Amino acid sequence: MAFDSLSEKLSNAFKKLRGKGRLSESDIKEAMREVRLALLEADVSYKVVKDFIKTVSERAVGRDVLESLTPAQMVIKIVNEELTALMGSTNSKITISPNPPTVVMLVGLQGAGKTTNGAKLAALLRKQNSKRPLLVACDVYRPAAIKQLETVGSQLDIPVFQMGTADPVEIAKAAVKHAKEHGNDMVFLDTAGRLHIDEELMDELKSIKSAVSPDEILLVVDAMTGQDAVNAASAFDEALGIDGIMLTKLDGDARGGAALSIRAVTGKPVKFAGTGEKLDQIEVFHPDRMASRILGMGDILSLIEKAEQSFDEKKAAELTEKLRKNKFTLTDFYDQMLQVRSMGSLSDIAGMIPGVDAKALSGASFDERALDRTEAIILSMTPYERENPGVLNSSRKRRIAAGSGTNVSDINRLIKQYETMQAMTKQMTKGKMPGIGALGGMGAAKMRRNGKFRF
């Protein structure tokens, strides 16, 4: 994640405080100096850092902290609270019109990720709020922009409205009319961007705004551009009046300062964050949860939400019942591995668990080829064999190996891993957590040298 380096530096600063029984003003001053350097290196705005350090220092040298039995914990608590306030305190929701359709105008510089992340956002709101979105191709200048929107729309099964290279203002007006006639309650206008901010770009965006009166103008900015993202946000807000921000590429190795500066500088909230290249890797931006993750305190709420989104409720109930009756089969084994894999990379998951070093798992993922082999082996079995693995004798294994393009040794390895997991599940007859089989079975996974887990 973008904050890995910042998290490490802040952790080191607070580690020194924890090593002292009582704190003096000089101890806090030294810690704040390290925090200031860490924030500046993360490309946070100098003025934002200056104000942040001043506020934290004033609170940290108070009597309640210096005379506390756990002063280091109190300082960390203050930093957590001020980081949360810096990013907006609470998550800001998108404005929904009482008279559909809700029109969301996506603006930003070229390359920020408007097209893909706009489609991701439409899919997220369809899933979480049961919306019926319509994507609109208003970028008639960038080569293949319309085709790109149609492609992601097709992948997400979201309709796309386009009129070729017609006037973007007319396209926007026609799209809103089309949405009203076809029952689409949200319209996402994918507008054109430029490599830099210019008068022509702003005039066109103002014309679209005037023509359709959007309920939400959402600025899409690339978190990897650092302070340039903050400058772009200020310019767009001044010219257009934005309502919120979507940060993209927060999964990159950028320093992440934009996320910490942009709210303080522009006064506009970060509402969504793109966290990866996959079309489901977008999330609501929660300042309090992000602050906790930056400080290495984890983000259990987001982990639970991610699990709930990834795991099928009906299958989870069926699995719970099977665990109670000790009827965990190879089909269940495979289903659970697929659902855990759908949660994302192991480093992302680890970053949400308090006390776990996500950086140590950076780049780690499940071995896709191993899972492909597992799938081929299991699908080459008969339904009876999948439900009753004990019947797999030598001749059956040879047939399965031939049908799946694998070796008998691969099948034996899978059976052994399955039996290990089955033995573990015998102790979980009261478990109700979705995916408990696969999560428990991760203990049987082994880290490969290339940073992948192999089953």
Task: Give the structure's gist in a few sentences.
With about 450 residues, the protein is α/β, with parallel strands linked by helices. Helices cover about 55% and strands about 10% of the residues. It starts with a helix and ends with a strand.
Question: How would you explain this protein's 3D organization?
Answer:
With 455 residues, the protein is an alpha/beta fold. The chain folds into three domains: 4-86, Four Helix Bundle (Hemerythrin (Met), subunit A), CATH 1.20.120.140; 102-297, P-loop containing nucleotide triphosphate hydrolases (Rossmann fold, 3-Layer(aba) Sandwich); 311-454, 434 Repressor (Amino-terminal Domain) (Orthogonal Bundle), CATH 1.10.260. The protein is built from 21 helices and eleven strands. It has helices at 4-18, 25-41, 46-60, 63-66, 71-86, 114-129, 145-156, 168-182, 199-212, 227-240, 257-266, 287-294, 300-310, 313-324, 330-341, 346-350, 368-379, 383-387, 394-404, 408-425, 436-441, and strands spanning 102-107, 133-137, 160-161, 186-190, 216-222, 244-248, 270-274, 282-284, 365-366, 446-447, 452-454. The strands form two sheets. It has an eight-stranded mixed sheet, with helices on both faces. It has a three-stranded mixed sheet with strand order 9-11-10. β2, α7 and β3 (160-161) form a beta-alpha-beta unit. α2 runs antiparallel to α3, α3 packs antiparallel against α5 (71-86) and α15 (330-341) runs antiparallel to α17 (368-379). The protein is flat, with a radius of gyration of 26 Å.
